[in-house]
Write a structure and sequence with these properties.
Layout: H1 29-36, H2 60-74, H3 91-106
Length: about 110
């Protein structure tokens, strides 16, 4: 818990809760941590929203595993029409889809 802001700084506790984008502009820290588990070439570099996921090692099998992990962690179902290369091009694109689906579920 951060004493100044009153927010949790523990990434692993509630992956579905939005947290400050410590990992890079436009990315929720919990989402970035989940995503980084599927990027074999990321190493210790910070993950940014505009990083190309294929360049960081996301192949088609990892994309399927990532899809299931996102759906489980965030309680969303990504529809077939969004399962396109553009969605999985960058972490920012993918996070935008998750945010939009969560907002639609709130309505």
């Amino acid at each position: 818990m951060d004493a100044d802001t009153g927010t949790s700084t523990d990434i692993g506790t509630d992956i579905g809760a939005e947290k400050p984008a410590e990992a890079g502009a436009g990315l929720d820290a919990g989402f970035a941590e989940l995503l980084s588990r599927h990027l074999r070439y990321l190493g210790s570099a910070p993950l940014t929203g505009d990083a190309r996921l294929r360049d960081l090692g996301l192949d088609s099998m990892q994309a399927i595993n990532l899809l299931f992990a996102i759906e489980d962690a965030y309680g969303v179902s990504i529809p077939d029409e969004l399962l396109v290369d553009e969605t999985f091009e960058t972490g920012g694109n993918l996070w935008s889809v998750v945010v939009r689906l969560r907002e639609e579920d709130q309505r």
